[in-house]
Amino acid sequence: MNALETLAADVVNFVKDNQAWAPYIVAMLCFAESLAVISFFVPATVMLVGIGGLIGASGLPFWPIWFGAVIGAVLGDWLSYAVGHYFKDGAHTHWPLSRYPEFTKRADEFTRKWGALGVFIGRFSGPLRAFVPLAAGIFAVPQWKFQLANVSSAILWAFVLLAPGWGLLKYFSQYLPH
User: Fold this and answer.
1) Residue 123 in contact with residue 154, Cβ under 8 Å?
2) What's the structural domain count of the chain?
3) Were both Cys, which of 18, 36, 68, 96 would link to 23 (CB 3.0–4.6 Å)?
4) Does this model's pTM top 0.70?
5) Do 74 and 33 contact (CB within 8 A), yes or no?
6) 146 domain-assigned
């Protein structure tokens, strides 16, 4: 196992051992997953799928954990948007973004083409997920359009990542010996 896989397994095990903290841990994971550059070092997608399975297997409450995921994702994208809005095109020349010109260029092109809809679509694209909100801030996508796309995509994204493990394990657990 590589370091990121080990980290993912450790976080899922930590959630299993500290179930009361699950919504907060998931919120922090989604926040980190939604920040430009930081998202490269936090394999939150893998962790969230694993936590979804843990929800189904352990009987953890789904909705508070889902809500934590939504809040973390919304706040992470909002911060990325604010950074882009503050620095404008100069954001590209500051570290650490200056080290990832290929991602910022792709996110810029994607955001120019799709605008606020790109924020929604970008949430479901791993490499672009954290850079599109930054680009939306740089290109001054109107705040209300950004937030509409941000919140609605976070609601769906969190459900898509957590629900399969929760639902499938909940369904199959009725057939497993207790």
Assistant:
1) yes
2) 1
3) 68
4) yes
5) no
6) yes
**In whole angstroms, how far apart are CA 147 and each of 6, 72, 78?**
34, 14, 8
| DSSP of 4-60 | HHHHHHHHHHHHHHTGGGHHHHHHHHHHHHTSTTGGGG--HHHHHHHHHHHHHHHT-
Q: How confident is the model over 66-100, as pLDDT tens digits?
A: 999 999 999 999 999 999 999 988 887 887 778 87
In this structure, are residues 92 and 101 in contact, taking their beta carbons and an 8 Å threshold? yes
The answer to whether residue 164 is domain-embedded is yes
Per residue in 102-152, pLDDT (tens digit) is 878 888 898 899 999 999 999 998 778 888 999 999 999 999 999 999 999
Peptide bond into 43 cis (omega under 30): no
For residue 146, give its domain range: 3-173
Note whether residue 150 is domain-resident. yes
Per-residue tokens: 90: 């100069």
Q: Name the token pair of 67.
A: 């809500």
